[in-house]
Amino acid sequence: MAIAMGVDRTTYSRYEENVLEAYPLDKLAKAAELFHVDVTALLDDYNLFLYHGQGQQIKRLRKSLKLTQSEFAKYMGVPLGTLKKWEQNRANIQKKSFEKFLQVQNVKSDALQASETGFESFSEAPALKNRTAQKV
């Protein structure tokens, strides 16, 4: 299998053991072809996020929260330049930051529900106040 994918056995073992964060799609595409499955069937949630264009997803969430890049970067705990690179797909978001991103998505969902009960903004929702006090 390793030979067919164009990697050495150690690298292939690391793929199987889920040691790496991001997997090269060109290599996984070869594996998917050999297994006769769609490449997305081989990806975990993090790699699916990368596969489906992290930049657009990050930017969409940030804008839906009506946050500037600077505000969102601060909330995510990353430098502004890092966030810009993520949104431009020039650098992959790290798995730990991806987990924080998922948490923000959940908070947004809770905040939307809260807004239906009278909260005017994202920051007023109790779910955000409770969750943002927690660190990932």
Q: Which key terms come to mind for this protein?
A:
elongated, 434 Repressor (Amino-terminal Domain), 9 helices, mainly alpha, disordered C terminus, 0% strand, 136 residues, 2 domains
How would you describe this protein?
- Residues 119-136 have low confidence and may be disordered.
- The protein is 62% helix and 0% strand.
- The protein is an all-alpha fold.
- The protein is built from nine helices and no strands.
- The chain folds into two domains: 2-43, no CATH class; 53-132, 434 Repressor (Amino-terminal Domain).
Outline the secondary-structure elements.
Layout: H1 2-5, H2 9-16, H3 25-35, H4 45-51, H5 54-64, H6 69-76, H7 80-87, H8 95-115, H9 126-132
Helix pairs in contact: 6-7, 8-9
In short:
By secondary structure, the chain is mainly alpha-helical.
Tell me the radius of gyration: 18 Å
Can you give the helix content as a percent range?
55-70%
Task: Count helical runs.
Answer: 9
Kindly give the count of domains. 2
The CATH topology assignment of the largest domain is: 434 Repressor (Amino-terminal Domain)
Order of helices and strands: HHHHHHHHH
Q: In the CATH hierarchy, what is the superfamily of the largest domain? A: lambda repressor-like DNA-binding domains
Task: Report the major sheet.
Answer: none
Uncertain spans = 119-136
Shape: elongated
CATH architecture of the largest domain: Orthogonal Bundle
Spatial gap, N to C terminus: 37 Å
Main CATH class of the largest domain: Mainly Alpha
* DSSP strand count: 0
What structural category characterises the helix and strand content?
mainly alpha
Question: What percentage of amino acids are in beta strands?
Answer: under 5%
